[in-house]
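Case study 2.
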Amino acid sequence: MPREMKECKKCGWRWFPRKEEVFVCPKCRSYRWNEKPTKDNKRKPRKIPSEKEFKKVIKQIMGKF
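Prediction:
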C-alpha cells in the first residue's frame, strides 16, 4: 500500500510517515502539525544575512576586543 506524504502546517516540513496515524511533526515536534497555524504559533524562516551584513557584524564584535 503506498504511503501518503504528510505536511506540517506549522513548519512546512514534508515527510512519509512510518505508521498510518501521525501524532507529531518529526521536525518541529508539534502536536498541532495538521492544524492551520494562527498568527502567534506560525514559525517564520530565518533571514540569512548577506556577506556584507555578516562582515559588518564581525567587525562590530571584533572591535570590542
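The two ends are 62 Å apart (CA to CA).
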